[in-house]
User: Which sequence fits this backbone?
């Protein structure tokens, strides 16, 4: 009878609990983190992930040294932030500044996730913070980048999230002093 | 990354080989409990990685383009296709670019064609979002956002209608799971090894205390439509626990809360970590009181004994080791001094 007991508890949610639990113990953090981030892609898992405070966990990853943790955490945020509920949690936890810091990350995948996440976080209330001159300048630089993906994504950001006036202002400012947002430090 | 270049790259430029085209190494250190049907690499998919542009590598150079496109068309409308002669390919193979009309078609095609053999070669299929235009990227993001929004809205609607119908806030997935497992149980009651979409696994040993009122999120008790064994076990256990606690500590104030919530027949319920810690702390505070009230070593226990925790046999050595590891760790964590109960309001960040 013990066995059938186990077979009855195999719902997605309980497995997510299990993942979450193992995350705190095992060495396989990276794998589990990637798993959680991929779970975040499916909207039907959003509520569970929210309940398990996974948005917080992803935000924590952004302060890790391990580049994989950062990449997977940012990927998870990119997936989660499409959902309005998760978006609000990320905003409450001061996600914007944590994410902005990684616009200068050396890994393209991390930067792309960061830009998409910032776009997802844009609401009337947060618009002014996300389209501050430093970030707009950064996106202008990205829109000239060699990588077509980054170029495209930055262009979408400039066209959809910023006003023409803001872009013009940032272009003017770029003639003079520039901010350092989005410029990776030398190796 | 952000190096500005003068955009003079002509259309005759050799396409770049991007890192995300490479087939990553399959992860070999994955524990058994997370092994899927197919070997996979550790990778996070975001909407940025996906695209309705696919690149198919490893197509044998024997003039099978038509066949390839026909194969692709099984998964959706193909808008464009062309061989990427410039792309560095393995000897005697060709590389093709396929543009689907819809992202979902590309997704299905990638899932079904990748690593499949095709006229004697093994295909490698990957997304190539670098072929997108700005407009493609915008539409892709908009579609995705719209999809997630719709899902969120329908979830809210379902929760709302369900809440008014049965005054429980069971989430729709729970319900769906109930239905599917009900069906599966009927079809396949004897043969459990084929039962679940996941391999069978025990849950980590966590407390079954029904502190429902503490849970800030309100997954409340859900009525058991299946009469599962799982709930039967809980219901067997709980009266005994209640009796004991009533005998020993009827004056404690939260006892009434116990009874109230257990009366509502708790099904399996997830407790957030913060409430686990709280319960544990409360237990530790209560432990010395209890041992004092039992009056030394006479040990005249009244009432039935609590059942022994069941020994689990997972039919597999490594799984057994894992289970006992979890059990021991939980014990250690539970007995560690200096645990602080964390308030939900402060919302602690977990460090891992």
Assistant:
């Amino acid at each position: 009878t013990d066995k059938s007991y186990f077979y009855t508890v195999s719902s997605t949610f309980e497995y997510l609990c299990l993942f979450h639990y193992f995350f705190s113990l095992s060495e396989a953090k990276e794998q589990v983190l990637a798993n959680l981030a991929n779970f975040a892609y499916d909207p039907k898992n959003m509520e569970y992930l929210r309940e398990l405070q996974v948005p917080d966990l992803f935000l924590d990853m952004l302060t890790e040294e391990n580049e994989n943790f950062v990449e997977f955490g940012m990927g998870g945020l990119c997936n989660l932030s499409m959902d309005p509920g998760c978006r609000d949690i990320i905003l409450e936890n001061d996600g914007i500044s944590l994410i902005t810091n990684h616009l200068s990350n050396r890994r393209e995948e991390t930067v792309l996730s960061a830009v998409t996440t910032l776009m997802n976080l844009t609401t009337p209330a947060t618009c002014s913070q996300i389209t501050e001159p430093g970030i707009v300048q950064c996106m202008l630089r990205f829109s000239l980048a060699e990588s077509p993906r980054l170029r495209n994504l930055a262009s979408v950001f400039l066209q959809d999230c910023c006003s023409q006036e803001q872009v013009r202002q940032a272009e003017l400012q770029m003639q003079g002093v520039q901010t350092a947002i989005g410029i990776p430090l030398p190796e | 990354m952000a190096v500005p270049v003068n955009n003079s790259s002509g259309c005759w430029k050799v396409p770049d080989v991007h890192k995300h085209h490479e087939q990553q190494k399959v992860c070999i250190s994955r524990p058994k409990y997370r092994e899927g049907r197919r070997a996979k690499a550790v990778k996070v998919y975001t909407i940025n990685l996906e695209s309705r542009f696919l690149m198919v590598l490893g197509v044998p150079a024997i003039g099978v383009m038509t066949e390839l496109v026909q194969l692709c068309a099984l998964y959706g409308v193909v808008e464009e296709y062309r061989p990427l002669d410039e792309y560095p390919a393995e000897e005697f193979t060709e590389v093709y670019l396929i543009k689907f009309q819809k992202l979902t078609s590309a997704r299905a095609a990638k899932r079904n064609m990748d690593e499949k053999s095709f006229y004697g070669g093994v295909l490698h299929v990957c997304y190539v979002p670098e072929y997108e235009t700005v407009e493609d990227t915008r539409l892709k993001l908009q579609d995705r956002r719209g999809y997630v929004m719709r899902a969120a809205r329908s979830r809210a609607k379902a929760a709302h209608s369900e809440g008014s119908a049965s005054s429980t806030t069971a989430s729709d997935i729970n319900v769906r799971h109930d239905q599917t497992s009900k069906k599966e149980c009927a079809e396949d009651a004897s043969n459990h090894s084929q039962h679940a979409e996941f391999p069978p696994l025990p849950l980590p040993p966590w407390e079954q205390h029904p502190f429902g009122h503490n849970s800030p999120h309100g997954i409340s008790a859900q009525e058991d439509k299946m009469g599962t064994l799982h709930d039967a076990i809980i219901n067997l256990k709980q009266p005994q626990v209640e009796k004991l606690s009533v005998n020993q500590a009827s004056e404690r104030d939260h006892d009434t809360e116990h009874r109230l919530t257990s009366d509502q027949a708790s099904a399996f319920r997830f407790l957030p970590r913060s409430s686990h810690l709280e319960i544990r702390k409360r237990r530790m505070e209560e432990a010395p009181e209890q041992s004092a009230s039992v009056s030394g070593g006479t040990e005249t226990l009244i009432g039935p004994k609590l059942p022994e925790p069941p020994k689990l046999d997972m039919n597999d050595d490594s799984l057994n080791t894992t289970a006992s590891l979890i059990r021991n760790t939980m014990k250690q964590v539970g007995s560690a001094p200096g645990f602080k109960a964390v308030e939900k309001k402060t919302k602690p960040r977990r460090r891992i």
Observations:
- Chain B touches chain A through 78 residues (CB under 8 Å).
